[in-house]
Each structure stands twice: as structure tokens, then as C-alpha cells.
Specification:
heterotrimer; A mainly alpha (310); B mainly alpha (312); C alpha/beta (559); A: mainly alpha; MetI-like fold; 74% helix; 0% strand; flat; disordered C terminus; B: 312 residues; mainly alpha
Chain lengths: 310, 312, 559
């Protein structure tokens, strides 16, 4: 039943648009052409990253790698995947991402909702309170001292707690609620005598699927890519997230490839390997997170909200 | 027509007056986290007024206060106006191109007929966001270097080679376009999410009225993302003189310094000399923030004239 | 109703715990000085244990570590050293990339300071600033407990001068790695087969076939003539115009363009700052610099040197030497990394001037004595014991082991007939560098000519380079030119340098590059360049360097 309710409206539109006018036909062709051209523009460099990751470095620098890989080898992947730290890194990153994102959502969504409500007391003060932190910060030194005083140095929580809320994202949520939720729905709930919490959990949350999905995506990707806090807060290599491990492997290879007066052929091999690693580590580190988008975008389907209302 | 006072409907005014204190609980966790991790360390701003060496206590009897000296050093620097100009122009052009593109792309993707194709395209558009800066700039050198793909193509087409990295005019377009390339798909996501809030019945009604698809984009889709666009617009304007140093530094050559030296790369270089310049870099950061805040407040008050979707 | 209560409680607990731990902090770890008798401390016998038994004293030392080196607590050479001295070091390792970001943060966290930092990498400016704040300990106050180190300073007043701060004290322990290799980081190589081809077909008549050996010397006109032929002919015979007559990496730390300036009589280096007759000078304001730059710009315009060298990408340069032979001549530290067939290339002597003038080669400013290797924090208890421990690092045999690996693993157990240590070959499947990185921390130590003569044999590859430099570079280093040593600046000087140095540097490089791209610099533009440099503080910068250099000379004279 519910399924039908979602699908029906768009089907109707399709039926209606059958009798498409000429100008519409032109419009559709134009946007299709633009989007596909843009797609090619995006695809080629991505394709290049893939073929560069399996090509010979000299061939890349001499401009021979263009349409297909030259001197195919998997040394970059080999160097990465034979390193045991990679798997620890994957595990840690997944844990930080899951834990961090869960906390982010729990904190950000209610806060964004409250901010969007005109009946929030001291609304202006609260908004200003948050906005200030987007521009003014005490810098790294006091933050480090704070984390040290909280005994969070070398603790997984240092990867999560300082980033519990992104003010920027909170305002995205606020913007979504300001224009995305029909007032009528809420008023109906209020008339029913539902309290703030019931309104939020039984009406607002079901309507928020798209924004929650986006927030999951934004926060998860930020956690996934975060290596800087690992760099300054973590010393224990067993706690390193994936990106930090990849960085270390790259630096390790680069150092071996820059030795002064070292064995010539090794230096060369190592610096070539370092280059392959740069490309292959993009593939290794992004493939798992790329699957997130198709999943997230399911919640963008038109009618999801309408369906939920019925 | 509803009566409006200062841009608000009567209903909204009534709402404003009826406070709901429960809502404070919704915001409490965010409030606490921001207090601990943003406000507690904020005393670090004082470093801007000190001759600070790491290991000094920021507030103690031994603190060496230097007043506005660190700021004066920056303002008096002969590079000052060049830095401001370079930073502002880089951000400004980046904004002019980078801000509308995701909106347009999102609107186009949303109105595509083949939904599955649209999904696939979206997924591919957002992938460049995951390319690390080092590889991104590495590819720029490979593609636009003296013997790179672009120059090879130029020569094959009968043109002559152009050193993109040795001509300062090429720096800004290259920096901005590569940035836009990396992030337009990613930035379109938030608009796509907002567009899913559009009630299909609105479209049906419009079709029956005989509105073309293009008209519906302007009449239905665009207003649906107005709130998000407005907030993002204000925030972007409030970032008009901030640019991270990492990518600029990677793309910098001595030849394009004239255009590529921006505030943060300059501060970074001063720090690199080992002269321990915490005071100076904090002061410059603070100056940057103040300018940004002024821009933000201006943008916000301007936005208030047109829309209820403002920051505060 | 339930919700609200729960939410409030949760928030209170969260805020409460955070604030409590915030203000409680951690008590810090103040450790008392221990009594010398209790420790059984001695420092005079440099081969005996420093304290009476293991476990009586322990130090926390933070160490920046190369990612390839194992944890220092597991490093054999440090364990061996502990077995000899009985001083227990608890190493806290941090990788190089993290240290760069965390150095200031760690120093800020006063309550959790380590006792010392190994591989501290303090610049002399950092030392000046931290020393004024009672952050680090004046090591010179403890010299009497450091017999090996004192002996080195006794023997080498120049080392003492280089590591002494402007206030006359020594605040950090140096790494002294003197092989004589870094002064001249460029050698000129030329494709011998290509040159022979040109001689055989009569295109080049000013030299004979038998001249084409290592040490060949040409003047700039002859060189230009050869390179033009390299450019115009299909030297590698592949039918394509892909020859690169001459290449290098612009302003790189080695393999750069500066030796070319030597042909014009200018002792240049990548900093464009050197010492001539005891005076600190900027080479870039010399008229010879203009002349040489115009000459190089012509080479670039004429396609003898590809414009891409200015993009200073080492990777692209190295790739250009691989596969199909394309390089005619190039500057680099050695040839094997650059080209696939190094045997096809000869080492040339530096180029002579346009009218055959003798070349002068500049000296690079890379120090062989680096300060800031180890700093001891002011809070360290029993610093004299730690000083004596670090003093052992300067014992010649320990120096060699700390730099290359332990005896028995990296060195043969038995010394050679001269009583010197002999290096072993790395095990199968491992390169010399990998082997070394896994065995040696490569921190503070001292290997100078004295040690090479009496205790340790040099690595064979270093020896080869040294021989080449002695033939083709050192004879051209003018007497009156010196490298700028590690200098210590006063706080006032640091403020001045902080203000002007980056600007001078930027302005110089920006213009220099523009000249090379645009075919040279006119007299008027060069004059304007010089006056603008003065305007943005060149003289102030030079004055600071001069004052610091004068102090350095004075310190050297004291002994």
C-alpha cells in the first residue's frame, strides 16, 4: 500500500508529460547533453587515477599514459596491502566513523530542529553563540592542552568528541527544516496536544529522512578522511585510522627513496613506488566509502516525505 | 494575502511570542560540546597580543604582553595589500563560479527524465571529492605541465606549448577550476536533498496548467531550495577571505608567486623559518576572522531584506 | 515526561564529568633529584657504567623516529648502550610527520614534558627563543660531566663556535657528520657517445676523441655549440625530436643551475647568499649574476634547456633520463639515479667562462654540523646523569654504531689491520639504506676526519663521491669563499629576520624566475630590482647575518 502511495504521483507526472511540448523536448535534450558532457569531464581524470595506479611511473611522467595503462604493475597495491597496519587502520576508521557519526546525528538533528523553530527562547543569542565558533577559535595549543587535561590523548575518544558537532552542518539542518516541513503538519500535531518530544520523534524525524541521510554522508566522510586529529592526538600506532596508516606508508617509502648518496637503483625504485602508492591509496581508501552515496540517495526519492505523511 | 510586519506573517509573530522552553533541551548537547571544545580553548586568542613561546602559560605573571605589535607587523608588511588582494580575488572568483554551479547541476539532475541515469551521474559526480590534495595537484602538473597532456594536445592542434605553472595569470583559473571540478558534485548533494521535499502534486498541478519544465524549475524547484541556498550563500560570503594554504602551496612556483601568495601561505612560510611566530600567526588569523565576520553580518542583514532564511 | 528527565540527567552527567576532569587535570610528574652516592654515579671513565646498577635511574626521552626504524626501545644499539652504561632510557617514539605538527604542542604541555627530546630538530632561532624562557637546559653548564664531547670541542674550536648560542652557552647537542660531501652538490655529466659522434663527423673540432673522458673541460661557447648540435640533430636516432640537450632541477638542493654561474666567476648557491672575504653577501645583486642569468635565459629561449626545468619537478627530471636516451648533459649529484646507462656519461670539470676564464664554484650552505639534535628540558631531574649518557654517543665507536648499526650486524666484529671498523654488506634482498634505517637511529654523534682516520672506514659509495669531488669540484672552490655556518641570532635579530627574510627571498626568487622565463633582464630592470630589495629590508637581513657571523668568528678565536 505504502509503496503505491510513493510511486503513484510520479507515474501520474509521466503520463501527463507524454504529451510533451516541443520546448520541453528541447529542454530535456539540452540538460542531458550538458550533464553527459560534464560527466566525461569528471570521468576522465578519475579514469586516469585508476590507470595511473597500475602504470609505470616513468611512463606517467613522460606523458605516455593517456588512454590505457603502460607498463602494468600492481606494486603500489602490493606495498599497501601487504602491510598489516592497513587492516588495523580499516578497523579503526570504521569504528571512528560509526561511533562519530552516531554521536553527530544525535546532537546535530535535534539542535538544528530547535534552531529552526521560532518559539525557541533566546533564539538570536543561541544562533550567535554557535556562529561565533565558526570564525573564532583559540588555535591548536589550547585545544591540545584541553584534550591532554581531559586525559583523551592517545584515546579513541579524541577522534570523536572534539568533533561532536559541526556548526556548519547544524545550520544546514536548520535551513532544511525552515523551508522543508509544511507548517500545517505541525499545527495539526499541536492541536492533537502532542508535546515537543512526541512531535519531534513521531512527525519530524520521519519527515527528515533526506536531511538525516545527507548528514550521515557529510559526517561519515569527514570522519573517514580525518587524519589530522590522529596526527596530533594519537601516538599509538594501533589506534591510527586508515588515512594515517596510508600516510605513514607513503612517507616511509618516500624517505627510503630520498636517501642522500644512497644506492641509486633503490632510491629510484622507492621514489617510483611512492608515486604508485599515491594513486593506489586513493583507490584503497575511497572504494569502501563510495558505496555510501547510492545508499544515501535512496532517501532523496521524490515522494518519500509525502509517503511518510500518509 | 496575509498581513506582513517586518517580513513576518502574523502567524509567525504569534509563534515568536509563544516561547517553548522544552526546545532548549534539544539544543543542550550541541551547546555543551561547543562550549567545551570551542569556548574553553578560546583563551588562545590572547596569544595574538603576546610574545608567546610554546611552554609559556597564556595567562600568568610572566606573560609578555606586546599589545598590537603582532598586528602592526602584519599591517606594515610591504606584502600586506598584495596578500589581501590575492586572497580576496582567489576566494571571490572561486565563489562566483563555485557557488552557482552546484545549484544549477542539482536542478538539472533533478529534472532529468531517466532517474536511474541521474542517480548514476550523481554518484560519479561526487567521487572527485575523495581525491587527496597531493594527487589532485600532482595530476594538474601532469596534465598542465610543460610536457603534459594538455600541452601535447595544444601542439598537436598546431598551437604552441604554454607553461601553466610558470605564468602567474594561469594560477587562479587553474586553482579555482580544479577546486570546482572536485567539489561541485559534492556540494550539489545538499540541494538534491532539499529538492526531495518538493511535493509532486505541485508539479502535476503546474503541468495541467500547461507550464513547461523550464518554467517549473523556476516556479517550483528553485523556491524549494531557497532556504538552503540562502544560508549557504551567507556562509560563503562570510568565508570570503579564507583560503587554506595546503593546495596553494602545492601549486606555488616562484614564477606565480605574484598571484599565488595568499595570507595563509605567507603566514605558513614565516612559521617555517623557525622563528617561532605563534603570536604573529594568531594575530593574522584573528584579523582574518574579524574581516570575515564583518562580511557575514553584512551579508546576513542584506539577506534579511529578501528572505526569512537568514542565519540569525 | 520521562524524556525530559532523562535528557536533563544525561546532559548534566556529561557536562559534569567533562568539567571535573577539566579542572582536576593531572597532577604532573615532579620527580626529585637523586643522590649521587645512592646512584653510584661516575663520569670520568668513559667505558665503565655510569651508575652502579640497572634500574636505579630512568629517563623519559621523546624521540622523533623515521617510520622505517623499529621502536627505539627494541633497537639493539640502544639496548647495547644501556648494557654498557646501566642508564635506562624509556623512549617515547613519535613519527616524523606527527612530530612536525606536534612539536609546539608538546612543548606547550608543560606538565607532561619529557626529560629530553632526541632528534629534536630545533633551529638556532628556536633555541634562542626557548632558552630565554627557561624551557631547555644550558648543556654547557654540564660539560665537565661530558668527557668525550668536551674533548671534541677542545679539538675543534669551529664546532664549538657553530653550536654556541649568542649568549655564549650551548643549549643543544649537535650531530656532526663530516664527510666533505655537501659543499659541492653538483656535478656536470655529458653523453659521451653523442659527443664522440659529433667529433667523428667533424661537427666538433675543438676537441679530439681522446679528450672525451672524465674531467673534460669546455668553455661556455664550446658548450653552447655542442648543445646546439644535440638539439638540432637526431642524436638518439629514433627519428623524433625528443633530445633534451641540457637539464637540471632549478634551485634544487643539488643538481641545480648554480655551477653555471661559476663560469661567470660568481660563487652562487641555491640560497644565493654566501660569505666572501669574511662578509655575508647576496650573490643575486652582483652584476655577474645579471650576466649569467641572461646567458641562461638565452639557453632557455633557444631550447637548449627546456623550460620545464623551472617547474622544478624532480620526478619529471628523473623520468626524462629513463627509457629512450634523451639527455645530452645534466647537473646532478651522481649519474646512476638519473640515466639508465650511467656508463654512457662522463663527468666534466666545471665550465670555463665565455673567454675561457677559470671557473669558481660556490659552496652550498648545508651544514655538516647540525645543532638542535638533542635538547634537555629544564624540568629533567639529575640532568648530569643524562648528559653523561648522551656523552657516550660521541665516543667514536658508538658514533659509528648509532649512525650505521651495531658491531656484529652492520660492522665486522674484528677491525681491519689499521684497527678501524669495517662495514658489512647488507643482507641479500635489502639495500644499504633500508638496512641502515632498521639498525641505526642516526641522531647525535660525531664522525669527523679524525674518526675516519683513526676508528672507522667510510662507506664505499661515499668514498667514490668524495674522490670525484676532489678531482672535479674542490680545486675550483675559491679560497676567499666560505659557506654560511649554523648561526645563532639574538632575539632582536630574530625579530628583524622574521620581518624581512621571507620578503627578500620571495622577491628575489619571483624576479629571478621571471627573467629566466622572459629571456633575461635589462640593466634598468636589474637596477630597479636591487633598489627594491634594499627597500624591503635586504640590508637589515644581511646585517643580522653579518653580526651573527662575526660572533661565530669571535667564538672560534676564544679557544
Amino acid at each position: 500500500m505504502e509503496e503505491n502511495a510513493i510511486v503513484n504521483p510520479s507515474r501520474k507526472i509521466k503520463k501527463l508529460s507524454k504529451a510533451m511540448s516541443k520546448s520541453d523536448r528541447i529542454y530535456y535534450i539540452v540538460i542531458d547533453v550538458i550533464l553527459v558532457l560534464l560527466l566525461l569531464l569528471v570521468l576522465y581524470p578519475l579514469y586516469f587515477v585508476v590507470i595511473a595506479s597500475v602504470s609505470d611511473t616513468d611512463a606517467i611522467f613522460n606523458g605516455e599514459v593517456f588512454l590505457y595503462p603502460v607498463g602494468i604493475n600492481f606494486k603500489g597495491y602490493d606495498a599497501l596491502l601487504k602491510n598489516d597496519m592497513i587492516w588495523t587502520g580499516y578497523r579503526n576508521t570504521i569504528l571512528y566513523t560509526l561511533g562519530g557519526t552516531l554521536l553527530n546525528i544525535a546532537v546535530t538533528i535535534p539542535a538544528g530542529w530547535a534552531l529552526s523553530r521560532l518559539e525557541l527562547p533566546w533564539r538570536k543569542f543561541i544562533a550567535t553563540y554557535f556562529i561565533i565558533t565558526m570564525f573564532f577559535g583559540g588555535g591548536l595549543i589550547p585545544l591540545y592542552l584541553l584534550v591532554s587535561d581531559l586525559n583523551l590523548l592517545d584515546s579513541p575518544f579524541a577522534m570523536i568528541l572534539p568533533y561532536a558537532v559541526s556548526v556548519w552542518n547544524m545550520f544546514m539542518v536548520k535551513a532544511f527544516y525552515t523551508s522543508g516541513i509544511p507548517d500545517g503538519v505541525l499545527e495539526a500535531a499541536e492541536v492533537d496536544g502532542a508535546g515537543s518530544f512526541r512531535t519531534f520523534f513521531s512527525i519530524v524525524i520521519p519527515l527528515s529522512k533526506p536531511i538525516i541521510a545527507v548528514m550521515v554522508l557529510f559526517y561519515a566522510v569527514a570522519h573517514w578522511n580525518n587524519y589530522f586529529s590522529a596526527l596530533i592526538f594519537l601516538s599509538d600506532e594501533n589506534l591510527y585510522p586508515l588515512q594515517m596508516v596510508l600516510r605513514e606508508i607513503l612517507i616511509m617509502t618516500e624517505t627510503a627513496g630520498s636517501g642522500m648518496g644512497g644506492d641509486a637503483s633503490t632510491i629510484l625504485e622507492q621514489s617510483k613506488l611512492a608515486n604508485s602508492i599515491k594513486y593506489s591509496s586513493i583507490i584503497v581508501s575511497t572504494l569502501p566509502i563510495l558505496v555510501l552515496y547510492p545508499f544515501v540517495s535512496k532517501f532523496f526519492e521524490k515522494g518519500v516525505m509525502i509517503g511518510a505523511l500518509k | 494575502m496575509e498581513q506582513r510586519i517586518a517580513g513576518l506573517t502574523l502567524k509567525e509573530i504569534r509563534k515568536k511570542e509563544k516561547k517553548n522552553y522544552w526546545l532548549l533541551l534539544f539544543i543542550l548537547p550541541a551547546f555543551v560540546f561547543v562550549f567545551i571544545f570551542c569556548y574553553v580553548p578560546m583563551y588562545g586568542i590572547l596569544i595574538a597580543f603576546q610574545d608567546f613561546v610554546p611552554g609559556d602559560e597564556i595567562l600568568s605573571q610572566y606573560t609578555i604582553w606586546v599589545g598590537w605589535d603582532n598586528f602592526a607587523m602584519f599591517f606594515k608588511d610591504y606584502m600586506f595589500w598584495t596578500l589581501i588582494e590575492n586572497t580576496f580575488l582567489l576566494c571571490f572568483f572561486g565563489f562566483i563560479i563555485g557557488f552557482p554551479l552546484p545549484v544549477i547541476v542539482a536542478l538539472m539532475l533533478n529534472s532529468m527524465r531517466h532517474k536511474r541515469l541521474s542517480k548514476t551521474i550523481q554518484t560519479i559526480y561526487y567521487i572527485p571529492h575523495f581525491i587527496s590534495l597531493v594527487v589532485m595537484v600532482g595530476m594538474l602538473y601532469l596534465f598542465f605541465g610543460q610536457y603534459g597532456l594538455v600541452n601535447n594536445a595544444l601542439e598537436a592542434l598546431g598551437g604552441s606549448r604554454y607553461s601553466f605553472f610558470l605564468h602567474e595569470e594561469a594560477f587562479r583559473p587553474m586553482y579555482i577550476l580544479s577546486g570546482v571540478w572536485q567539489d561541485f558534485g559534492w556540494n550539489a548533494i545538499i540541494y538534491l536533498a532539499a529538492l526531495s521535499g518538493v511535493d509532486p502534486e505541485q508539479h502535476e498541478a503546474a503541468i495541467i496548467d500547461g507550464a513547461s519544465r523550464l518554467r517549473r524549475v523556476f516556479a517550483i524547484d528553485l523556491p524549494a531550495i531557497g532556504g538552503t541556498t540562502s544560508i549557504l550563500l551567507i556562509l560563503s560570503i562570510g568565508n570570503m577571505i579564507s583560503v587554506g594554504y595546503e593546495k596553494v602551496l602545492l601549486m606555488q612556483t616562484d614564477a606565480n608567486l605574484g598571484k599565488s601568495e595568499v595570507i595563509m601561505t605567507y603566514v605558513y612560510k614565516k612559521g617555517l623559518t623557525g622563528y617561532v611566530m605563534q603570536g604573529f600567526s594568531t594575530a593574522v588569523g584573528l584579523f582574518n576572522s574579524v574581516v570575515n565576520v564583518i562580511l557575514l553580518i553584512t551579508a546576513n542583514s542584506l539577506a534579511k531584506l529578501f528572505s526569512k532564511n537568514t542565519l540569525f | 515526561m520521562k524524556h525530559k528527565w532523562l535528557g536533563k540527567a544525561l546532559a548534566c552527567v556529561l557536562a559534569g564529568t567533562m568539567l571535573c576532569s577539566l579542572f582536576a587535570g593531572c597532577g604532573g610528574k615532579t620527580r626529585e633529584n637523586k643522590d649521587w652516592e645512592e646512584l653510584g654515579y661516575q663520569w670520568e671513565d668513559t667505558e665503565a657504567p655510569i651508575v652502579k646498577e640497572k634500574g636505579v635511574i630512568e629517563f623519559e626521552v621523546l624521540a622523533q623516529k623515521n617510520s622505517m626504524t623499529p621502536n627505539y626501545n627494541d633497537l639493539q644499539v640502544f639496548n647495547d648502550l644501556e648494557d654498557e652504561t646501566y642508564v635506562d632510557i624509556n623512549w617515547e617514539n613519535i613519527t616524523e610527520s606527527a612530530y612536525a605538527e606536534r612539536k609546539t604542542l608538546i612543548l606547550s604541555d608543560r606538565e607532561n614534558w619529557p626529560d629530553a627530546i632526541y632528534h629534536a630538530g630545533f633551529t638556532s632561532a628556536e633555541i634562542s627563543r626557548y632558552s630565554r624562557r627557561n624551557t631547555i637546559l644550558p648543556i654547557s653548564d654540564y660539560l665537565e660531566y661530558m668527557p668525550n664531547f668536551s674533548a671534541i670541542l677542545e679539538r675543534r674550536p669551529d664546532i664549538r663556535a657553530a653550536i654556541t648560542s649568542y649568549d655564549g652557552k650551548i643549549w643543544s647537542l649537535p650531530r656532526i657528520d663530516e664527510m666533505g660531501l655537501t659543499g659541492n652538490p653538483n656535478l656536470l655529466f655529458m653523453n659521451k657517445n653523442w659527443l664522440l659522434t659529433l667529433i667523428r663527423d667533424g661537427s666538433v673540432d675543438f676537441i679530439d676523441e681522446e679528450d672525451v673522458v672524465d674531467g673534460l673541460q669546455l668553455d661556455l661557447n664550446q658548450m653552447t655549440q655542442v648543445l646546439e648540435l644535440f638539439r638540432d640533430r637526431d642524436m638518439n636516432g629514433n627519428g623524433e625530436d625528443d633530445e633534451i640537450p641540457m637539464s637540471f632541477v632549478f634551485n634544487n638542493w643539488q643538481g641545480n643551475q648554480t655551477d653555471l654561474y661559476g663560469a661567470f666567476g660568481l660563487p652562487d648557491n641555491p640560497d644565493h647568499m654566501t660569505i666572501v672575504d669574511g662578509e655575508v653577501v647576496l650573490t643575486a645583486v652582483d652584476d655577474k649574476f645579471q650576466e649569467a642569468t641572461n646567458f641562461l635565459a638565452d639557453w632557455i629561449t633557444d631550447g637548449i634547456v627546456p623550460l620545464s626545468v623551472l617547474e622544478n619537478s624532480q620526478d619529471a627530471f628523473l623520468a626524462s633520463g629513463k627509457g629512450q636516451e634523451k639527455l645530452g648533459a645534466f647537473y646532478w649529484w651522481e649519474s646512476a639515479t638519473v640515466v639508465s646507462n650511467p656508463d654512457n656519461y662522463i663527468v666534466m670539470s666545471p665550465l670555463k667562462g665565455l673567454n675561457g676564464e677559470e671557473p669558481t664554484l660556490g659552496l652550498s650552505n648545508y651544514p655538516e654540523i647540525s645543532t638542535g639534535g638533542v635538547v634537555i628540558m629544564a624540568s629533567c631531574p639529575n640532568p648530569e646523569v643524562l648528559c653523561t649518557y648522551f656523552d657516550r654517543h660521541y665516543d667514536p665507536l658508538w658514533s659509528a654504531q648509532l649512525n650505521y648499526g651495531p658491531i656484529g650486524v652492520a660492522y665486522e666484529e674484528e677491525p681491519d689491520e689499521n684497527g678501524k671498523l669495517v662495514q658489512k654488506d647488507p643482507p641479500e634482498g635489502m639495500t644499504a639504506d633500508e638496512f641502515r634505517l632498521q639498525l641505526a637511529p642516526m641522531g647525535i654523534m660525531c664522525l669527523t676526519q679524525y674518526e675516519w682516520d683513526n676508528f672507522v672506514n667510510m662507506e664505499p659509495r661515499a668514498q667514490l663521491r668524495l674522490d670525484r669531488l676532489e678531482k672535479y669540484a674542490n680545486p675550483y672552490n675559491p679560497e676567499n669563499v666560505d659557506r654560511i655556518p649554523t648561526l645563532s641570532f639574538t632575539l632582536e635579530e630574530i625579530n628583524i629576520l622574521a620581518q624581512y627574510e621571507v620578503n627578500v627571498d620571495n622577491y628575489l626568487m619571483q624576479n629571478y624566475m621571471q627573467w629566466l622565463i622572459n629571456g633575461g633582464v635589462s640593466d634598468s630592470a636589474f637596477a630597479e630590482f636591487k633598489s627594491k630589495l634594499d627597500e624591503i629590508g635586504l640590508q637589515e637581513v644581511l646585517d643580522c647575518y653579518q653580526a651573527a657571523y662575526d660572533r661565530y668568528l669571535a667564538n672560534q678565536g676564544q679557544e
